[in-house]
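Chapter review: from sequence to fold.
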Amino acid sequence: MDEARLLSVDLEHTGPPPAVVVRVDGELDYGTTPCLLAAVGTVPASGVDLILDLTGLKFCDSSALGVLVSLHKQTTAGGGRLYLASAGPQVLDAITITSLDQLLRVRDSVDAVRHEIEIGIS
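The token string follows.
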């Protein structure tokens, strides 16, 4: 099966302050993480907050979690922040069980993240 059909990634540039909402739909695993990385690679490297809208993400494995950590490091190094929004139960369980919720900013919705960014909570 074509891996690209298992995952779709759409970007929406917003701001000010500058942020990019990345809508991730489908399954994020070893075969599909390159699709996410390629899409996020088009985002400017400095001062941009990245909001991953995980509403449509149905599955993630350990390689996906590794990519989330890499995106966190990359975004932070550029002076931005990475947020995970609207994660479903399976994805949220994977993040919580691995204690990544202690590292990553996990929020209930994209709107909650936008509000947090607008009022300057860091």
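Two observations follow directly from the output. The chain has a mean pLDDT of 90. Helices lie at 3-6, 33-40, 62-77, 89-97, 110-119.
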